[in-house]
């Protein structure tokens, strides 16, 4: 639950497959198997989405578990989108074996009307604002904050949340750390 995956810390083994993946009972903007999450994460996601709905904010699950093989395709897609520029792709997509999505502990969230899905403007949507203010109460952290690229290796992703459990999420808030690397005293991972 507290594993740190980054450009210096690949999955081990590289094609790691999490056990106990389940489909969370929340609105989905993606199909199985990419909506699956680890059991503990799925339960927390359900509580999170229910609390948002109580506040009148509609969330959807845009991307959950991604296999090693899926990440090969995802990364290749972003390299192609960037005209073969791997440095540009590396700022926004992990290479296979280095993605948090492979752990089953991370998910991309969207607003139910599809506004600003996987875009920087998601931060300004009701869903983005609600997540930023409340996700920690359910054991989630914003994994790639703006301005932390030198530590996390990724430009800001206001939609990518990671389950770390309540203890770590609350501790980070209390101590004012915004990355897992800082919280656990690990080296920055700006590159591979
Ligand atoms: Zn993500």
The major sheet is characterized as: 4 strands, antiparallel
H-E string? EEHEHHEHEHEHH
Estimate the helix proportion, in percent.
25-40%
- Please tell me what the overall shape is: globular
Q: Give the integer mean of the pLDDT values.
A: 97
Enumerate the spans where pLDDT stays under 50 for 5 or more consecutive residues: none
Query: Order of strands in the sheet with the most strands?
Result: 3-4-6-5
Q: State the end-to-end distance.
A: 23 Å
**Named CATH architecture:** 2-Layer Sandwich
Overview of this structure, please?
The chain is an alpha+beta fold. It has a single domain, classed as Muramoyl-pentapeptide Carboxypeptidase, domain 2, CATH 3.30.1380.10. It is about 35% helix and about 15% strand. It contains seven helices and six strands. The protein has helices at about 40-55, 70-80, 85-90, 125-135, 150, 165-175, 180-185; strands at about 20, 35-40, 60-65, 105-110, 140-145, 155-165. Strands 3-4-6-5 form a four-stranded antiparallel sheet. Strands 1-2 form a two-stranded antiparallel ribbon. The protein is globular and about 45 Å long. The structure holds zinc ion (ZN). Zinc ion binds near residues 63, 101, 106 and 108.
